[in-house]
Amino acid sequence: MAPDVIFNVGLAFVFIAVASLLAARLNFSSIPLLILAGMLFGPHAPLIGTVSLELITSTESMELLSRLGVLLLLFYLGLEFSAGKLAEAGKSILKGGTVYVLLNILRGLGIGWLFFDSWTEAMVVAGITGVSSSAIITKLLMDLKRAANPETELILGIMVFEDVFVAAYLSILSGMLVPGDFNISRVLINILVIFAFIISVLVFGRRLSGFLGKLFRLKSNEAFSVIIFTLVLMMGVLADRLHITEAIGALLLGLILAETAHNHRILISITPMRDLFGAVFFFSFGMAIDYRTFPDVAAISGIAVLITVTGNIINGYIASWLAGYKKRKATNVAFTIMARGEFSIIIAGLAAAAGLNPRLPAFAALYVLALAFVSPVLAKHTKFFHSIPGKFHLKTPRIGTTT
Fold first, then answer.
1. What is the rounded distance in angstroms from the CA atom of residue 199 to the CA atom of residue 262?
2. For residue 318, what are the contacts with CB-CB under 8 A and spacing of at least 6?
3. Mean pLDDT of 8-37
4. Which helix (H) or strand (E) holds 44?
């Protein structure tokens, strides 16, 4: 069994390396190419005559490496900021993040009702189209070297707000899919637990930064890296036990460790692992997509992508304005946070398993794949959109915090 596992993972890395190299040569984001590689050589690979291109099997090893990739991506993003910076911008992020999430969900409900003519399906589509992909957005921020930009604090805030929304959303959706399963008190308790966890980590974590700084005074790079990696894993486990996205736990840990004097050393230590396992995540993500289901949903997916791009730009500008950003910073926010990811496909799968419209998984897969191509292009060329006078940025005086 062991040689088969090693061969499977090794072959996956061959295709990951080829996709990454091609992206570097084309000066293009590696995200869509890695997803395509997973589609081409994974369990749903195409047939050429009678020959299947399926060379990689989805295994527990691949899933583990994939989950580590998401943890490290979000942890690294937290390191680029700090709990102090996020706390200082708390009020402005609260306004912008709340409005952004609400507007996106309302838009998703409209799309769902338009295509499926049912409030239950509309609720599912709201989740598919309304929640951003933390992994894709983080990778974009890394690729575009914007992780330390001031406006990224709003993007971080939006991701945290979306995680709170997901807890309430899943509770409500489960009640719609399984009649009698909805419990308002359980929803409220889940939300309170998440807020308490986030606030506790940010408040007490900052106070522990001095202790952690002493803990990391190690000459051995091996011991240093092992301790950091262990902390990331344990924070992910703790978050998961509290029904919070494990990646958000890693993000919060990064925000805390950014307060220590060892921030730069941690960044250097974690970067190679972030790139390696992050690439596995996007490849594994592609392995779950079956292109054969696309023809039946091509039209509605295309319309949903257009509505999402347009609506996300508008919502992003509104959220940025409320958070105190304008012009180039607002453009960066609006054009960076439109990617959707693994959560969308999971929600569609749950809905199909509950007996809802069987086209939902195919719709979610094609929708996510299209945005995986569109989002990097738009995010990379925000300068072009910002330079078009009066069309793509608000000229309203900034309010809130100074950036």
1. 23
2. 99, 100, 103
3. 92
4. none
Maximum mean pLDDT: which of 117-121, 165-169, 199-203: 117-121
Encode pLDDT of 168-194 as tens digits: 787 777 777 766 555 677 667 777 777
Residue position matching structure tokens 């929304």: 165
Residue position matching structure tokens 């950014």: 258
C-alpha dihedral sign at 301, 307, 312, 315: negative
Give domain 2-386's CATH number out of 3.40.50.800, 1.20.1530.20, 3.40.50.2300, 3.30.430.20.
Answer: 1.20.1530.20
The token pair that represents 41 in the structure block: 């050589």
Do residues 18 and 3 lie in contact, with contact meaning Cβ atoms separated by under 8 Å?
A: no
CA-nearest of 94, 81, 73 to 236 is 73
Give me the residues paired with residue 52 across strands.
47
324 contacts 77 by C-beta, under 8 angstroms = no
Axis-axis angle for helices 2-26, 30-41 (nearest 10): 140
Q: Give the domain ranges of the chain.
A: 2-386
Which pLDDT value is given to residue 178? 67
Q: What is the pTM of this model?
A: 0.79
Quick one: which of 236, 254, 269, 264 has its CA closest to 79?
254
Q: How far is Cα 150 from Cα 89, in angstroms, rounded to an integer?
A: 10
CA-to-CA distance for 183 and 50, rounded, in angstroms? 52
Q: Which tokens sit at 328? A: 């180039």
Asked whether 332 and 151 are in contact (CB, 8 A), the reply is yes
- What tokens does 110 get? 């409209």
Q: What angle, rounded to 10 degrees, do the helices at 134-143 and 360-380 form?
A: 20
pLDDT, position 313: 92
Q: Residue 245 corresponds to which tokens in the numbers above?
A: 């996205």
